[in-house]
UniProtKB/TrEMBL annotation, chain A:
It comes from Vombatus ursinus. Its main location: mitochondrion. SUPFAM superfamilies: Thiamin diphosphate-binding fold (THDP-binding). GO terms for molecular function: metal ion binding; pyruvate dehydrogenase (acetyl-transferring) activity. This is Pyruvate dehydrogenase E1 component subunit alpha. Its EC number is 1.2.4.1. The keyword Electron transport does not apply.
From TrEMBL, chain B:
Keywords: Mitochondrion, Oxidoreductase, Transit peptide. Pfam families: Transket_pyr, Transketolase_C. It is found in: Mitochondrion matrix. InterPro entries: THDP-binding, Transketo_C/PFOR_II, Transketolase-like_Pyr-bd, Transketolase_C. Its cofactor is thiamine diphosphate. It catalyses: N(6)-[(R)-lipoyl]-L-lysyl-[protein] + 3-methyl-2-oxobutanoate + H(+) = N(6)-[(R)-S(8)-2-methylpropanoyldihydrolipoyl]-L-lysyl-[protein] + CO2. Its EC number is 1.2.4.4. This is 2-oxoisovalerate dehydrogenase subunit beta, mitochondrial. It comes from the Eukaryota. It comes from Vombatus ursinus. It is an enzyme of class 1 (oxidoreductase). GO terms for biological process: branched-chain alpha-keto acid decarboxylation to branched-chain acyl-CoA; response to nutrient. The keyword Oxidoreductase applies. Residues 73-248 form the Transketolase-like pyrimidine-binding domain.
Amino acid sequence: MRKMLAVVSRVLTGASQKPAGRVLLAARNFANDASFDIKKCDVHRLEDEPPTTAVLTREEGLKYYKIMQTVRRMELKADQLYKQKIIRGFCHLYDGQEACCVGLEAGINPTDHVITAYRAHGFTYTRGLPVREILAELTGRRGGCAKGKGGSMHMYAKNFYGGNGIVGAQVPLGAGIALACKYNEKDEICLTLYGDGAANQGQIFETYNMAALWKLPCIFICENNRYGMGTSVERAAASTDYYKRGDFIPGIRVDGMDVLCVREATKFAAAYCRSGKGPMLMELQTYRYHGHSMSDPGVSYRTREEIQEVRSKSDPIMLLKDRMVNNNLASIEELKEIDVEVRKEIEDAAQFATADPEPPLEELGNHIYCREPPFEVRGANQWIKYKSVS
Amino acid sequence: MAAAVVASTARWVRVRAGVVEAARLRCQLGGSRFGRLFLLPSAAGDVAQRRHVAHFTFHPDPENRKYGQTQKMNLFQSITSALDNSLAKDPTAVIFGEDVAFGGVFRCTVGLRDKYGKDRVFNTPLCEQGIVGFGIGVAVNGATAIAEIQFADYIFPAFDQIVNEAAKYRYRSGDLFNCGGLTIRAPWGCVGHGALYHSQCPEAFFAHCPGIKIVVPRSPFQAKGLLLSCIEDKNPCIFFEPKILYRAAVEQVPVEPYYIPLSQAEVLQEGSDVTLVAWGTQVHVIREVASMAREKLGVSCEVIDLKTILPWDIDTVCKSVAKTGRLMISHEAPLTGGFASEISSTVQEECFLNLEAPISRVCGYDTPFPHIFETFYIPDKWKCYDALRKMINY
């Protein structure tokens, strides 16, 4: 028995030492980069088009893979925590659309600005916030990025303006941010995202007009995941060519499930905006696996076969993985190791999010106004007041 | 959305030790001194249980046989019944809004499309301003338009259409045109987990606008009668439905149409010492406060459900205050500028010499509706009871 244990332990220690050596050995055999053909983008009112080939280096590939996998795992963890009733309220999950947030981030600089609607967890992560702060915000704890006061729909980070609950309300804000970019002359642009449902809101069209009139460096991005809550795009929109809806604003339609396609299109659009030619519209054709929110099973308005089909044919993480493995940019084992790392990070973050205490009750009255001397928030009756500190 | 309401209300039907725990914490809040109250980590163990308790208990009214055969219905079923009656009676009636075709996110329009056809019950794209503007047009042309705004929190893009177009149409055209056939329905009020944008009560914003009517029912029986009255009424009406009651409130409701008059407040319970006024979900809270006051303080409360916010029944409230001398008004919306301020102001004008104590308003805090702090934000029975006690001992 003891001999067997000794053998087992030797084998196990041996096994843990092996992979490092194997990776070192294997790294020398990997290609440094590879060139891929990507889907041609439909354009509206443009002479040029984004390129149809993209170069992916090994380093970039591993980075995109890790980020997409983190977003995927984070959303699945949020789903789990919601079902355990640790997260409450409304929770809109982003799994299936990872290529959009990763591709967009890859095409812009960290000094550029992003604003999106309520399906914001992916962007919060790609814009730089750690997973633990995101999950803690979902569970409403003081370690959360908005101190637990915002919840799922209101997450903010540097150069990331949320996280907005009211549909379409963030689009005029995005144009305003773009105006500030133009005014400050720092060569920054603003990515203003909205969904296929929001594309029918009036304020979007008002914004298109203002952005085009004043040539604002704003990329309007419609994340078309085919369903506005439970309504399919055919039943909601007179024209489902969302990239043409800007009319006088040039538009591109992009395959939102391919991270390279999104990246190249974003670089193209960013260059266009930075050159002062005005706004551009991008439609990302993507898909969400979960329902609209956690209270939507997601199968009453679409078939399970459809979801399965997208999962098996166009899953963004799978596409990237296949590309990298088939072109000798990474090995399956390496990617599996990344998976394990990611899982651990998410577990730790979930642990933190569950154990962190809730914000103190004083926070109820705080941050209503800006930097007023502490005043009393009138409350339930004339004898209950809360102090507000800003 | 609806499924979440189901799940949460199912949990809320249990009244457990969590209430006592929460009450103890909340009693510490009373007093003008700024209390250092922290949510102790040790309490995190029963946080889950504490949150599952509703701040009210629904009191169904006794069965009303005046209108024929009744059926057990909850709030959303009584709304469906009212809409069914309307569409049957009025061939020009149409229902539209986001997702109403399949039944609506709160099941208020289930079965209506199959019964009346897709030209009478149809979905609109995601555009509140468009929905209300379109509804005004439908009504001006003589048809009956029943528009649904998915949550009252989303009604603000349509605010301009309601205030500047709908409310003023008759006045500005010298009665040549009107959009009286328009009724706007919206789910309203706190729901336990709604946070900033699924819990608001915007009746005060609209109360400031002459030309429209605003109605908030407290129960299924009231909802059907009031909704039918709103649809019949020749003025644009906004009908707010307390979403927390959609499943929690069950009553016997007549199957045939019946009408409850608008602008008439109802005295639910006669009393001689204090008048309590509320509307919607809060009526059930103050009913409980009234029974607590009777048991613990020997105080007899007169409970009034205002029902119609605009135009409100000034006579009933003032007559009551003239009798009792004390008034407490309670609503979930923030204190400053809330509708209680209008009631308070009018009552002190009419009944100044009758008042024994300052009019008390027990409302939400002047903050956006919080996500994590909801249990501390809403004016529950303990806060109302505390205010009542202070009024009695004034």
